[in-house]
Amino acid sequence: MKQNTFLPREMLNKEIAGICGVARMTDKARAAHAGDIGSYKYGADSEQDTTILYFLGISAEVFQEAAVRIDNDVKLGAWILDYCERSSAEISTFNRQLISWWQSKTPRVGFSKRRRELVLKRKNRSFLWHYFTTCLWHYPMSWFQRYFLRW
User: Fold this and answer.
1) Is residue 43 within 8 Å of 16, Cβ to Cβ?
2) With 89 labelled, which of 10, 111, 119, 149 sits at a CA distance of 20 to 30 A?
3) Are 80 and 44 members of one domain?
4) pTM
5) Radius of gyration for the chain, computed over Cα atoms and rounded to the nearest angstrom
6) Is 9 within a domain?
7) Is residue 85 domain-shared with residue 26, that is, in the same domain?
8) What is the C-alpha separation between 118 and 122, in angstroms, rounded?
């Protein structure tokens, strides 16, 4: 059984047309056309894609056909900008809104908790290392004996 190795670009990537999410959506459109999308969703099944496609005024089918037909990201970006006729101010506003939406969706609580756990573990290790190295250099008995005699 073939393992799926498809991984689209980051959501906040603005490589294509200077619009967040278009590069990721392009990767998913091309993968969906090739049948290699795996567990990712494209078009109407994806909340991200529907938001971007609505802003661009392009249907998922038209975008997928263009993404497959135009294999160069720069040319695809030019096609998107010509097709959607959005100003740079509108694109900038959309990017800010999409970034804000994306950041509100990311699981910060779990990330922060795991980060705190790792910091505490590191502090405990450095304390123990300092304690044992100090004992080894300053006292004639071994750290092993001192540790067990003390407790």
Assistant:
1) no
2) 10
3) yes
4) 0.66
5) 26
6) no
7) yes
8) 6
**Exposed/middle/buried for 84, CB within 10 Å: 0-12, 13-18, 19+?**
middle
> For residues 47 and 104, is the Cβ–Cβ distance under 8 A?
no
Residue 64 lies in a domain: yes
- CA 97, 57, 59, 12 dihedral sign is negative
CA distance 7 to 108: 22
**Residue 15 included in any domain:** no
pLDDT, one tens digit for every residue, the chain (151 residues): 455 678 888 888 898 999 999 999 999 999 999 888 888 999 888 888 999 999 999 999 999 999 999 989 999 999 999 988 889 999 999 999 988 887 777 666 666 777 777 777 666 666 665 666 665 555 555 656 656 655 5
